[in-house]
Design a protein that fits this description.
Blueprint (H helix, E strand, L loop, with lengths): L3 H16 L11 E3 L6 E3 L7 E2 L5 H10 L7 E2 L17 E10 L5 E8 L4 E8 L5 E8 L5 E5 L14 E6 L5 E12 L5 E10 L15 E2 L8 E6 L6 E7 L9 E10 L6 E9 L8 E9 L4 E4 L5 E8 L13 E10 L3 E7 L6 E2 L5 E12 L2 E5 L4 E7 L5 E7 L5 E7 L7 E3 L2 E12 L5 E13 L2
Parallel strand pairs: 13-15, 23-31
Antiparallel strand pairs: 1-2, 1-5, 3-4, 5-12, 6-11, 7-10, 7-12, 8-9, 8-11, 14-21, 15-20, 16-19, 16-21, 17-18, 17-20, 22-24, 24-25, 24-28, 26-27, 26-30, 29-30, 30-31
């Protein structure tokens, strides 16, 4: 990823810090060692790791003439506390968390993290859904060099939530400190805005790591007509595994409408969630905007409507927090993906059990039953299973709503939704009905398959 603006900021930050002859690191929070079979809690005291030599007035003079400042960051030798001796095959996970604030664009916080050799360092940054900010997360060394980073463009997905910023790094060097750098690239308002930073070290390292954010997603090829399998391990509560694939257009015979997913997980205590995203890169700096398409999918199986040719990002993450994740049971997961045919037409058979679509009694809970199928000549062909559908309703007075549903083995769907009762505009005698339009759409493309007008009872005036 291009990070020209961030790199410039880091360089300028380093210069300012050096000219002030000091750098302040936040107090390191308590690090909990959750080694299996060894109950220890280590409060790691972090010695000052950076010292800077004072910069005399001549430095300013040189800076003005050449716009370059030669500096040297001197790192004190810091002894990483001796670790308990455990068997080589025993999983080790250590967690830490900190809650803090940033106050303006360009504001930042730095947190030192002791990183043991051959351990996997992970970090996850949360910001409030309603905060009008864009915070980015980087891992840097003592010389302000960026090792890795996550810098999504802010998108709270219509008020649902921001996607967390996640990074991962395997330390192949001897035990040492790295630094988590939280940076405000955008900020609205004058009041400080809070964030939570979770981080951890684990000895369980998956084959595809690091794949903590979308830019590092593992490419997957989806072949129509067969079962495509993805396998992996969520090695901690803050682990993210990202995959990316292109939705095929057809299976050689019929067009496609989405995918069918079945998951399995080896752990009885830790589960997985799945989400799908689309990704855009609107600016030249290479930063991504991730748009949430389907969230927190945990049912099994899962049907997801997709547009042919759509680039899909699949996020796999833990359904546990760092407080309730079972470190003795890192879940190995398997995700099976198969393609779903696209139906050509649909039918709505009944509304609230009435095939005439007239509901003569008061009902806020509405149920719809129908079928989607392929066309075979002039007749409706076989039903299409596993189709992700949207059932949308629109009342005469403008209220709207929608729900997702899916089809069974015979292409039959059943959907229920709650609809507020409104005073309809259709009058029969002294009874008012809401002439409500109910439409079946394909979820991936919003292609209309069938619409009916259902007369839903509003009120009787005596």
């Amino acid at each position: 990823m291009k990070r020209k603006s961030v790199c410039k900021t880091l360089i300028l930050t380093a210069c300012v810090v050096l000219m002030q002859s000091m750098i302040a690191f936040a107090d390191e929070p308590q690090v909990t060692d959750e080694t299996v079979g060894v109950e220890t809690v280590e409060s790691v005291e972090v010695e000052e790791t950076l010292e800077t030599e004072s910069v005399e007035s001549e430095t300013t003079e040189v800076a003005e003439e050449t716009l370059e400042i030669e500096t040297e960051v001197v790192e004190e030798e810091t002894e990483v506390p001796e670790e308990p001796v455990t068997p080589a095959d025993t999983p080790r996970i250590m967690y830490g968390t900190v809650t803090d604030t940033l106050s303006a664009p360009g504001d930042y916080k730095i947190y030192p993290v002791p990183c043991l050799q051959n351990m996997y360092l992970q970090a996850e940054l949360f910001i409030d859904t309603n905060a009008r900010v864009d915070y980015d997360l980087y891992l840097i060394d003592e010389n302000f060099n960026i090792i890795t980073g996550c810098d999504y463009l802010a998108n709270n997905n219509g008020g649902k939530r921001y996607l967390t910023e996640n990074i991962g790094f395997v330390n192949t060097e001897p035990d040492r400190y790295y630094y988590l750098f939280v940076f405000a690239s955008y900020f609205e308002g004058t009041e400080p805005k809070e964030f939570t930073l979770d981080y951890g070290l684990t000895s369980v390292i998956g084959d595809n790591e690091p794949a903590e954010h979308a830019a590092d997603a593992t490419p997957v090829a989806i072949t129509p007509g067969v079962t495509n399998t993805i396998t992996g391990t969520l090695n901690s509560a803050i682990d993210n595994d990202w995959y990316v694939f292109l939705m095929p257009e057809d299976d050689g015979t019929d067009l496609l409408s989405g995918i069918h997913i079945e998951t399995s997980c080896s752990s009885e205590t830790n589960g997985i969630w799945i989400e799908t995203y689309s990704r855009t890169i609107p600016f030249d700096d290479g930063r991504s905007m991730m748009s949430l398409e389907r969230e927190n999918l945990s049912s099994n199986p899962i049907n997801i409507g997709l547009a042919p040719g759509q680039l899909v990002y699949l996020r796999v993450f833990s359904n546990k927090s760092i407080n309730d994740y079972d470190i003795t049971s890192a879940p190995d997961y398997s995700i099976s993906i198969s393609t779903v045919k696209r139906p050509d037409t649909g039918a709505i058979w009944s509304v609230n059990g009435n095939s005439g679509f007239i509901v003569q009694r008061s009902a806020k809970d509405v149920s719809v039953v129908g079928q989607v199928s392929l066309n075979k000549g002039m007749k409706m062909g076989p039903g299409v299973k596993d189709v992700d559908l949207i059932i949308e309703w629109r009342s005469q007075t403008g209220e709207t709503g929608s729900v997702h549903t899916t089809t069974d083995e015979n292409g039959i769907f059943r959907a229920g939704f709650w609809k507020p009762r409104v005073l309809g505009l259709d009058i029969e005698g002294n009874t008012y009905f809401d002439n409500c339009e109910i439409t079946v759409y394909l979820a991936g493309t919003h292609q209309r398959l069938r619409s009916v007008n259902a007369k839903l009872y509003s009120v009787t005036i005596y």
